[in-house]
Amino acid sequence: MSPKQKASGSSHASPSAERREHLYKILVIGELGTGKTSIIKRYVHQFFSQHYRATIGVDFALKVLNWDANTIIRLQLWDIAGQERFGNMTRVYYKEAVGAFIVFDVSRVATFDAVVKWKNDLDAKVQLPDGSPIPCILLANKCDQQKEGIVNSQAKMEEYCREKGFAGWFETSAKENINIEEAARSLVNKILLNDKLLQSNDNRDGDKFALDHKIANGENSRDGGSKSCSC
Ligand code: GTP
Ligand code: MG
């Protein structure tokens, strides 16, 4: 297992049954006051407060999911302060993440305008081990409020997400507990899929290595593997 997988996307099967445990690092980013902390508090602690206290730097929360009879998933949620934007620290915070939410506030169009900057920052600073972008879901939060801009059009939002490389989008409300579980499930599904793909690539790389190794040592040649050369 690579060090990357160990820290962020680790998984192991216990010796007994087919029990699997995964630990995934997930980022929650977006402009100031869009509701990142509130979404996490709702998701992890089933709690909401109107009171706004800006996050300083980064906060952490852990959500444990009994995904199916044999799979436990631990989501390590990194709640990154909106004021970290363009700061050098995001490179450190993003390291080894395997999924992300970008959050905007449907009632403040400026927070939607900033989404693309967050996405570019994310894609520039973190990739999956195979170099592809980490799956990222866009959260249109505070959907209990009056909406401003293209979030009023489902079709436009879908086109926007396709164009900008989002794995999907959800209207959410931390206040009314709308769609947060659904969004998280959707992100975990993408992460699991990537995990499987990466593992099968690793296996294929393993086979390729074994073959390359045999060829390099002449073990695959018909003459029984002479390493000498007639020239
Ligand atoms: P930073 O830590 O500064 O980046 O902000 P944040 O994105 O963590 O925002 P936070 O969760 O602290 O929420 C900001 C304000 O919005 C708070 O007053 C919340 O109560 C409010 N809020 C969050 N989610 C919702 C929501 O879904 N609906 C409504 N009406 N208010 C919300
Ligand atoms: Mg916060």
From TrEMBL:
GO terms for biological process: endosome to lysosome transport; phagosome-lysosome fusion. Transmembrane segments: none annotated. GO terms for molecular function: GTP binding; GTPase activity. PROSITE patterns: RAB (PS51419), RAS (PS51421). Its main location: membrane. Belongs to the small GTPase superfamily. Rab family. NCBIfam families: small_GTP (TIGR00231). The small GTPases Rab are key regulators in vesicle trafficking. This is Ras-related protein Rab. It comes from Spodoptera litura.
